Amino acid sequence: MANRESFLTFNSFNFSPPTVDLNHIFLFLAVISPLVVLARAWRPGAPYRGWRSAALVVLTITAAAWIFVPHAAGYIGGLAWIVLLFLPAIGLRKMTELAARGGNRSAAKLGIILQVLHPSAELRDQVRLFQRLESRQNHPVPFTSVPVVDRVRHSQLRSAPAVLVLILLNAVVFLFEISVGNLNDPEVLHRVGALEPYAVVAQGEYWRLFTALFLHGGFTHLLFNLFALYILGPPLERSIGTIRFAVCYLISGLASSAGVVGLMVLGFVQVAQLVGASGCIMGIVGTWAGFLVRRRHAPQAKQRLGNVVMIIVIQVAFDLSTPQVSMAAHLCGLIAGFFLGLLLTPRATSVAGDR
User: Which residues are catalytic?
Assistant: First the structure.
């Protein structure tokens, strides 16, 4: 896994009803993400230490907002996070991709723009290097000082057809939901197939275990889940193959739904309705964990496993601080994915640089 997970992914697994407070989500992001950045930046030999200043600014703005306007602290801190951490992380990744394809001039121009949001000596050095390479008309070389260290790919989804199909399927189903009625109405969610443990157990509506995995309680809920799938899915699919990835995704999701129903029957949880792909997404996280545990002696496997563990810990913290989400669904999907990951072997054609 790469550093970008620290900025992008840990907020994206919301298996939740439409009442989740967006201000709370952004507040969580604006606090946890900078702390993760600071922890990474202060490690011995950590690249691109300029991120420390940006993370401290985000924390300062969030703290000030919490003191003076607590009802909007999440939105204010979230905006600071987007401007100072999220957009620079995305931009730096794009800059690296441009340079790797020979577009040193475009990479340098993008770097100059990013300096406005993220001024640092490291970024200035990168821009100068791109400019020198362009003037010499040399081929691009790998750049290890940029925080996004993944092997560059022409398209994140081009070699991950299962992820692309799942993203499109969730989007199409969401459009269908909108056409049916108000997503804040439990009756609408009931009609379209939300998971209702009572209906499953008492009325035998077992199909809800599956249909709920493709439903969402709002656009933000959908966006978070699809973005997490976009980030975490393609490298795993390239490593284990399209069919096995799709199987892991669906089995993990079904396990999350069945687990919630079973825990409710046993009296451990009380659930009325659940919708969302987060059980599947957490299954992908679990599959990564199991896959990396089995390959723990491979190069960089332990570092990547540490990143997966960090995602899990942060997700649990988010669940504990957000009563509207179903931790039970997340954990059931995660556990199912972990055991599936233990059974997997790398695809013979997988790229050594895949995460």
Answer: 278, 330
pTM of structure: 0.74
Radius of gyration of the chain (CA): 21
What's the half-sphere exposure (Cβ side, CA atoms, 13 Å) at 326?
A: 32
Distance CA 57, CA 112 (A): 21
- Burial zone of 312 (CB within 10 Å; 0-12 exposed, 13-18 middle, 19+ buried): buried
Token pair for residue 61?
């703005």
Q: Which residues contact 346 (CB under 8 A, 6 or more apart)?
A: 239, 240, 295
Q: Is 195 helix (H, G, I), strand (E, B) or coil?
A: strand
CATH tag, 157-355: 1.20.1540.10
Domain boundaries, the chain: 1-139, 157-355
Pull the structure tokens for residue 305.
């496993």
pLDDT by residue (tens digit) across 203-240? 999 999 999 999 998 888 898 899 889 988 998 999 89
Q: What are the pLDDT digits (tens) for 231-277? A: 889 989 998 999 999 999 999 999 999 999 999 999 898 888 899 99
First to last CA, the chain: 5
Give the C-alpha separation, 273 to 299, whole Å: 43
Residue 49: helix, strand or coil by DSSP?
coil
